[in-house]
Design brief:
Helix content is 77%, strand content 0%. By secondary structure, the chain is an all-alpha fold. It starts with a helix and ends with a helix.
């Protein structure tokens, strides 16, 4: 959701970036609108006079609260999903409750590190494929009809190996830029 908001912000207001003060006030306004709908729903529940609202209106206002919270997090440089998970789980733990949220996938350098390890494993696997293709060429030299197939397999294995190496180098370069 944060990525979508960042993208939309570029469309919405490409030349200016709202500051945290604006975002906080924006969120407070949306919370106030949600509370106003809740007040009207309570009037209905109690049978009191006054204006009414619907659950659909409350859903819209609560969605606005969530979206403005995401915008505040973006403006403050906070990755909201892991923060929400950590807060939920610490509250459960502090109160002796079993309910927990699973952690989001790792971000940044940790993901890159896992990618590098996976690419290293892929390179080892492809080296085995190159070796096998070379052996097939040597062992089947007496069968010229098979040579093009084995040469194509060898070239494909070499190409895949080169792609793995390039991807690993790119991931390592990206890891230097991550905290």
């Amino acid at each position: 959701m944060q990525a979508a908001h960042i993208e939309r912000q570029e469309e919405w207001c490409p030349d200016q970036k709202p500051d945290l003060s604006f975002r906080g006030n924006e969120m407070a306004g949306e919370v106030g609108e949600a509370c106003n709908v809740i007040k009207k729903l309570e009037r209905e529940r109690h049978g009191w006079r006054g204006s009414r609202a619907t659950k659909e209106q409350l859903a819209e206002e609560l969605a606005d609260v969530v979206h403005t919270a995401v915008l505040c997090a973006i403006t403050a440089g906070i990755d909201l999903e892991p923060a929400v998970v950590a807060k939920f789980n610490s509250t459960s733990e502090r109160n002796g409750l079993a309910s927990r949220l699973s952690s989001p996938p790792p971000a940044g350098a940790e993901v890159i590190e896992r990618l590098v390890k996976a690419l290293e494993a892929a390179e080892t696997y492809v080296i085995d494929g190159v070796t096998t293709a070379k052996q097939n060429l040597e062992m089947n030299a007496a069968y010229p009809a098979r040579k093009p197939r084995y040469e194509a397999e060898l070239q494909e294995a070499r190409d895949i190996y080169a792609e793995c190496q390039a991807a690993r180098r790119a991931a390592l370069a990206a890891a230097k830029d991550k905290p």
